[in-house]
Amino acid sequence: MLDIYFNDETATVDKKVEEMIQTLLNHASLEEALTGEVEVSITFMTDQDIQAVNSEYRGKDVPTDVISFALEEVTNDEVAVIVEEGMPTVLGDILISVETARRQAAEYGHDFNREMGFLALHGFLHLLGYDHMTEEEEIVMFARQKAILASFGLER
Predict the structure, then answer these.
(1) pLDDT score for 87
(2) Which one of 2, 51, 56, 145 has the fewest CB atoms closer than 10 angstroms to its CB?
């Protein structure tokens, strides 16, 4: 079972969007054959706030649509998290810029809900280890995204 903890720092995201994301990511967790108790947090932010995070952690001083922080990913002398038996697996955090999501929905010609679902799934797949740093990784990740969105019924 997937537990998602939402934090809407913008106070603009409708509960129906959160419910859709909850259902979509539960669907994705089944598609990815996740087992046991799994936790994820999703924070809805402004462009200004996500830009600050993007600058600090990725060295890119621009707003972006989604950023993921995988808890189990170990980098730069970090200590690996050891999950005790019976404890939930905490995958990490997904940050979504609501302002960028609104702009992108208009640019791509689909509704805001679809864009929010897409961004949440994109971040979720990153937490599961998917990436798009190389062309090969991009092909795999984007095909997986497309398949999950299609099976859920959230296509463009």
Answers:
(1) 75
(2) 56
